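$ ./design --mode recover --in tokens.txt
reading tokens...
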């Protein structure tokens, strides 16, 4: 530290039979000023802004982007780039949402899809975590199925729908099978990437203190791989949500209930573009909301705790 070095220099400057001359005093003063300057350079001063100003600064750019999109959309409607029955106005879409709300069905559509997505994602996390740990730590398994996991991650989720229908029929099992097949590879690959980025020093230190087996996984491996693991979870949720919408679009039966995907398909069947765009808007809002309310705060907290994200 600069303070230690300058204190030593200051002490040396004062050594002259226990008495300091005028030049020695000046030198000591210069060294003290240098010490204060170096300490100031090494110190990070963070001014904490009021939470209202911070929230406003974060909310303002997205609000501006939304306003721009709505203005462009309204201009496209006004100048009839497409006939009005093919491109309704934002007001028409809002009226469609209002109608569903007044009918008392809007929240049930959203809840059906969110509950399915949450249950499928939880199951995907359990399976993907175990699979990712096995692939990351067992070399023969990694050599055998590592490339298959990467290939499955790039496979469109909708490709699993016909096979799942043949296996399980028009049932909830079909929907959950598509969600699992879409999300598990992403979560497993994210965990593998996180484990690969762990310094070998951490693993050796864990073995030295006796953290082996399940204890090593719990206390050393998973915490060290947490940034990559969370990235995999975020991607897994995105795949889970997209897989769910693909399954709901195709798997449509009266006893399954109506989710957002089925709502979107009903709008297509009735050739109602306001209905279709309203369903797309709800799907987008739910996906973004889950990301902002759940995954983004967790990711910021983990990165900040490791010094990878500095408050400003």
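writing sequence...
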């Amino acid at each position: 530290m600069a303070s230690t070095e300058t204190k030593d220099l200051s002490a040396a400057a004062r050594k002259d039979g226990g008495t300091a001359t005028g030049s020695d005093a000046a030198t000591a003063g210069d060294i003290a000023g240098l010490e204060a300057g170096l300490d100031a350079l090494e110190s990070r001063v963070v001014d904490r802004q009021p939470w209202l100003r911070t929230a406003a600064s974060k909310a303002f750019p997205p609000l501006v982007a939304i306003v721009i999109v709505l203005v462009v959309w309204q201009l496209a409607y006004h100048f009839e780039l497409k006939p009005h029955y093919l491109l309704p106005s934002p007001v028409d879409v809002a009226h469609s949402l209002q109608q569903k709300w007044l009918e008392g069905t809007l929240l049930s559509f959203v809840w059906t899809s969110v509950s399915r997505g949450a249950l499928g994602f939880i199951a995907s996390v359990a399976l993907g975590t175990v699979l990712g740990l096995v692939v990351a730590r067992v070399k023969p398994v990694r050599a055998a199925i590592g490339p298959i996991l990467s290939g499955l991650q790039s496979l469109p989720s909708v490709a699993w729908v016909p096979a799942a229908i043949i296996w399980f029929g028009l049932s909830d099992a079909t929907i959950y099978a598509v969600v699992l097949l879409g999300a598990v590879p992403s979560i497993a690959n994210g965990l593998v990437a996180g484990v690969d980025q762990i310094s070998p020093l951490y693993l050796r230190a864990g073995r030295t203190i006796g953290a082996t087996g399940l204890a090593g996984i719990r206390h050393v491996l998973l915490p060290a791989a947490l940034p990559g693991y969370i990235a995999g979870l975020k991607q897994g949720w995105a795949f889970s949500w997209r897989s769910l919408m693909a399954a709901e679009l195709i798997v449509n039966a009266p006893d399954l209930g109506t989710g957002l995907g089925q709502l979107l398909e009903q709008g297509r069947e009735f050739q109602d573009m306001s209905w279709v765009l309203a369903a797309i808007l709800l799907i987008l809002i739910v996906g973004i909301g889950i990301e902002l309310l759940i995954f983004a705060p967790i990711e910021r907290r983990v990165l900040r705790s490791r010094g990878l994200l500095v408050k400003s």
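exit 0
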